Amino acid sequence: MNTSPAVDALVRRDLSHLWHPCTQMHDHETVPMVPIARGDGAWLIGTDGRRYLDGISSWWTNIFGHANPRLAAALADQARTLEHVIFAGFTHEPAVALAEALVRVTPPGLERVFYADNGSAAIEVALKMSFHYWLNQGHGEKTRFIALTGSYHGETLGALSVSDVALYRKTYAPLLLTPILAPSPDAYEAEPGESAAEVARRRLGELRQLLERHAHEVCAVIVEPLVQCAGGMRMYHPDYLTGLRALCDEFKVHFIADEIAVGFGRTGTLFACEQAQVTPDFMCLSKGLTGGFLPLSAVLTTAAVYEAFYAEYSAGKAFLHSHSYTGNPLACRVALETLNIFHDEPVLARNRELAVHLAARLAPLRDHPHVADVRQTGMIAAVELVADKAARRPFTPGERRGLRVYLHGLEHGALLRPLGDIIYFMPPYVVTTQELDHLVDVAMRGIDIAVAG
Ligand SMILES: Cc1ncc(COP(=O)(O)O)c(C=O)c1O
């Protein structure tokens, strides 16, 4: 790979000055850095002309394909009109229209929109807003959050505080708030003979016990609805969300739904919460919101939350959280165009067909001697590799089996980026069934190579 002089030069310049996220830079002594020149639909095209099918939507952001012409046109038009304006005391059409549209398409009861500029920042906003709501209501004793085991909500200090993926959290633990961890309703953890719905019920029982003990000091329960993504694409039954809504009401704590990864059609419905017919107190959105074009996030909340902050200035109840790029017009305009695409095109119906195709192609892997689980929720599918299928014993992490799948993918025109030994598929919605076939074929061969020896 990376054989042309132009490619080598770009990589050398990169490695001279850049520091990449989620990367041990030393790995690049052996793992190639891939210079990308342009994107085209579901494909990324290297500076040497090599093509990679983006099987993970570039960290789950790109839902309508790279260099999408509609989103590009909206962005260009907005750039010629208004690129940015301070969002305190000033407003603009794209921000207002996007808020109206988000209120229209999200579950009923979410009426207020607060913008931030990435997923982690949205989580910070939701955590602070929930805490501040209770403070404004005279409940300053509520300072803690309940999160699920295996959860991931981002990597700024607040978001990392409510995350439970050791890889990201362990090193920084001394800096973090201590959440109360409730056991995840992850269906992979089912007892023999137990259905996903039964796991959900059992885990709700355990959450109830935690709330009985801690509700007085808890602001909110935060979850990734239906799929815990970075924690390993762990999936659970919608009944958990229904039960969670009821428990939050009963124990007077907020329900924060982090739909940053699962929102915008990923799980089969526009928002995952719809599958449980629940309205959370806060819904965090980002990633697909701008189709992967620009960083933007939004926190939606209820009139009841908003009203708890609405008072004379002297009462000191205003919400305080400001980013320079809040409500950026370019990002808002692209997000509006993203919602227009959902409105104009049968995206969810097409996703359902793609999901059926993907499921059929992955089904044979269930019989693979090193595959413990093949699971899928809409346009997210995951294959769990293990050393011992019967005992579900994982491979030793240091063996980095998933990395072998990644490297095989790069050699054969596919961007697959396993989470440890979990190979997952989260392609842009513009992918064709033939392209899905390519992705699965490459992954299957990569899996055989990765588990050998
Ligand atoms: C569920 C979830 N929440 C929050 C985040 C953080 O978003 P960002 O990477 O934009 O900070 C992520 C990112 O992967 C995510 O998957």
UniProtKB/TrEMBL annotation:
Enzyme class: transferase
The reaction(s) this protein catalyses: (8S)-8-amino-7-oxononanoate + S-adenosyl-L-methionine = S-adenosyl-4-methylsulfanyl-2-oxobutanoate + (7R,8S)-7,8-diammoniononanoate
Cofactor: pyridoxal 5'-phosphate
Site (Participates in the substrate recognition with KAPA and in a stacking interaction with the adenine ring of SAM) location in chain: C22
Protein residues bound to pyridoxal 5'-phosphate: G119, S120, D258, H323, S324
Main subcellular location: cytoplasm
Coiled coil residues, start to end: none
EC number: 2.6.1.62
Listed pathway(s): Cofactor biosynthesis; biotin biosynthesis; 7,8-diaminononanoate from 8-amino-7-oxononanoate (SAM route): step 1/1
N6-(pyridoxal phosphate)lysine: residues bearing it: K287
Annotated localization: Cytoplasm
Signal peptide positions (record): none
HAMAP family found in the cross-reference section: BioA
Family membership noted in the UniProt record: Belongs to the class-III pyridoxal-phosphate-dependent aminotransferase family. BioA subfamily.
Job of this protein: Catalyzes the transfer of the alpha-amino group from S-adenosyl-L-methionine (SAM) to 7-keto-8-aminopelargonic acid (KAPA) to form 7,8-diaminopelargonic acid (DAPA). It is the only aminotransferase known to utilize SAM as an amino donor.
Name of the protein: Adenosylmethionine-8-amino-7-oxononanoate aminotransferase
Underlying gene: bioA
